[in-house]
Amino acid sequence: MSVPTPHISAKAGDFACTVLMPGDPLRSEFIAKTYLKDAVLVNDVRGVHGYTGYYKGRRVSVMASGMGQPAIGIYSYELFHFYGVEQIIRVGSCGSFHPDLHARDIIIAMGACTNGNYAAQYNLPGTFCPLADFGLVKQAAEQCEKLGVHYMVGNILSSDMFYDDANSGMQWAKMGVLGVEMESAALYCNAARAGKKALCICTVSDSFLYPEENTTAEERQVSFTKMMEVALELA
Hints:
This protein is α/β, with parallel strands linked by helices. The protein has 7 helices and 9 strands, in the order βαβββαββαβαβαβαα.
């Protein structure tokens, strides 16, 4: 496939080697306008804002993924395979199952469990375990330490359901899963298949244990700045 692709209008060379990928297009815009110098809009297909600019002299891109594994599966696949992107760092929000995680704490997702079927396309003779790149995990943890951010490293659940009729979250918590979001497993699968690097860093926006701490949509858009700064330093 040549570029532009069906879902990205950018030209060849418009994206940097590292792309930060929030779910929300408005968070993508916020990151670009707050942190990137000389940021240029390179994609706006379906309102999915993608920008490329400079952070501390290094060329960096940021583009939204939308919600869910099918959406991030499309965008990350096209970035890895057709735009020469080498690493994608998801900067998202998540719900927490863990008693030591509160609103605005950070989860660095070393692995991504899932109730989805994304990996079935590979026809593997077993169950694939989607993992982050260890080098990115290590660097993210070091940056959290440097910034004084409370974080945990471990498994996250990439769920295909936001409204889960079975209310299965705490069953995953019994297995040490730290929280739930909706994208990381597909991103990790695509990175593995392409031989590229990926990491998911999520800020806790909601807690299954401390609902009084839950954040608003506006807060998720503009106030999760420590997560953004950690990801930008990795670039």
